[in-house]
Amino acid sequence: MNKGTKDYSAVNIFLEFRIVFCNDHKLKALLNRDCLRIFVHQRIKMGLKILHTADWHLGKRLDSISRMEEQLNVLNEICEIADAENVDLVLIAGDLFDTFNPPVESIELFYRVLKRLARNGERPVIAIAGNHDSPDRVDATDPLAKACGILLIGHPNAIVQPFELEDGFKITQSDESFLELQLPHIEFPIRVIHTPYANEIRLKQFLGIEDKGTALHENLKEKWESIATKYCDEKGVNLLISHLFMMQRNGELLEEPDGEKAIKVGNADVIYSDAIPTQIQYTALGHLHRHHQIGRETHPVVYSGSPLCYSFSEAGQEKYAMLVEVKPNTTASYKKILLQAGRALCKKTFDDVEKAIAWLHENPYTLVELTLISDTFLATDDLKNIRNAHDGIVYIIPKIRVNGSENKDAVSVNLDQDIQALFVDYFKYKHQQDPNDELLDLFDELMNQ
Questions:
Q1: Are residues 298 and 156 in the same domain?
Q2: For residues 76-100, average pLDDT
């Protein structure tokens, strides 16, 4: 148990003493005051604790397999971490959903989890739109969400109007792309520059860009610096949250996840981490599914990564939530908290069906891309036995040996495609060109007889 949890428990014991042993109203009031003073003192001493997560992609499937149960489990895990660590603020850096029109069950899960994280307005939750989200959908429920302590921001030029929740936090000031929070148990203000994902049109409007050749990096840097200069001094904690593709200048070339469309705007310049103002103590990013720290040690710029592995390019990755601690005018520290609720994604290759089935029985809580090397095509009974052995087989890829050895040039076949897609792949393999429409029509006619 960490120090923060012990301090909090001590206050709870004090409260129990007040309730059980004290009937005098004046003494109760004094104990209430002292309890609050101790609680405030201890929390100020610890500084601000933040939970940073991103890329939930609610509603996403892995081919035909639903991930809803895993998403429910991992979001419950994130809620438990927030409570166990006595987190003061939650930041969710975009790609809340996987599509602009997510299924109803995903929407219900999203709001249920956010309400739990916000603890009836005691703990603010700030969630921004990513490139998979509809900014209008994210904005639509914001008035209702505010009553629960949830701030939903869909557009980069959004202004969150000041308000105050009874027994909760308040927005003390705001501007385009900026808000300032005050929590009752934290003596310093919390400043947040918020920049959700924006397509080319919205981003140009946000930055006031008219010339197509203008460098995006310089414009965004100028915009952020103007906000930071106006509002972010050393008397408060200064944060930035965004959903975009950013990299360190002269650093490692980061890869976007499989299935993600590149979100670099047109032919504009890459955005580098040195665009972030020096006043910003911690930057919470979303979009890349693997954890990365692309800032300086004194100014962390962090991709939290997704809470689940969403494609086989992420097989073997560990997933985390970020726990951040920061005070005014100090360097923010953060640690990765391992998330363990998701199913592991595994790419396995076997040359024996029985060995494959044995491994599947030994590893039930996995999602599998299974490659089978054999001398002939797989028999129907073998395929049936493999399918019956495991409910998480996503792909079965047969590879045929040539002259007793594995054919390194063999084309992998995805047997889970529909029959026409398999025919197209076969035709391209045999003839190095796509079948024409007339041939496809004839194929359909034959299949429908």
A1: yes
A2: 97
